[in-house]
Design goal:
By secondary structure, this protein is α+β, with helices and mostly antiparallel strands. It folds into three domains: 56 residues, Integrase, DNA-binding domain (Double Stranded RNA Binding Domain, 2-Layer Sandwich), CATH 3.30.160.390; 95 residues, Tyrosine recombinase, N-terminal domain (DNA polymerase, domain 1, Orthogonal Bundle), CATH 1.10.150.130; 154 residues, Intergrase catalytic core (hpI Integrase, Chain A, Orthogonal Bundle). The strands form three sheets. Strands 1-2-3-4 form a four-stranded antiparallel beta sheet, covered by helices on one side. Strand 3 and strand 4 form a beta hairpin. The protein is elongated, with a radius of gyration of 30 Å.
Amino acid sequence: MKGGGVMGVFTRKTKTGKTWYIQYTLKGKQVQEAVKLAFTASQARAELAKKKTEIKQAQARGLWGGGISDATVSKMCDAFLDYSAKHKRSCERDRGLVMRIKEALGDRRAVDVTPTDILNYVAKRKGDTWKGKPTSPSTINKELTCLKSAFNHFIRDGKLMVNPVSKVRKQTENNERDRVLSPAEYDAYMKAAPDWFAALAVLTCNTGARKGELLTLTWADVDLFGGVIKILGGHAKNKETRRVPLNQDAKKALLFFQRGASAAIGPVFIRPDGKPITRFLADYYHRATCRKAGIEGFTWHDWRHCFVTAARRAGKQDRSIMKVVGHKTDSMLRRYDKVDWQDLKAVVADLDMGRESNGENNGEKSADPEGGL
């Protein structure tokens, strides 16, 4: 051992005097670390004892100690975002979710985060509000999923063994939706939207495609003459390539973008300023259009509900609808198909016709009885 000292603690001469070092074992390797604030052997031994205690406590929780003792949650999230930008389509969303996590836990060392800390974070988020509304369970779950992925990224690198987020239950979500636009709302939306954004909305509601599936289309995936677009499996949620037929409205929407296209194989959806339409930009213009049109409670994904509901009302077969929108199960299709009061009336319409002569059905449109309950 160079310099003077006892086992695990020693000094080395420097230009300004001497520096105390501590030596310990981490993951089977000897580690030497300078202790800048130690001026005596007793102070160096105290730092060594503290380091060994940290390692034992971390290993007792199933974590590798020491190796990431100085890595904060903020640094861990940054490392995950670098990975997300290279390998995930949802990297932009991850960046937004990480902001809240950094605000609450960013200064904490990743090795010190426990399931209790995660529960406290959830409790805090439940108390937060945005525009007078509490944070939704869905938003909290997305943040937890993102944080869990960040920890898993460290686990894959051998820096952690157990993920504290995995010990916390997700919030119960009521995410079933049945929102579809009325004809009047549809007209108001299209009038309020810029021309290029209205064309994107028309294509979406006439194909039932997901936002990410459409925005990743290139002209190589479009056959206007044959009336079909090809959604590649790498961009589809179920990872399966599918062909979606185009009606006249969908073709007109694509022709709008084709007129401004500068290449025959480049991305389909380009703004008038020449920049691609991103997911966040689509969400921004959707919210702005809804506000301008006075439409509430309608998300971009609800266009798929509109498509499925319209196709069912037009008498299309369930299996064919599922093929177009990329659903694999009947239960998922039913979640997207809204059945309202007029649909229920249509079921018994033929039965009522037998009593028309008695004056019981004069053909007038009745209101939904549940509306008054």
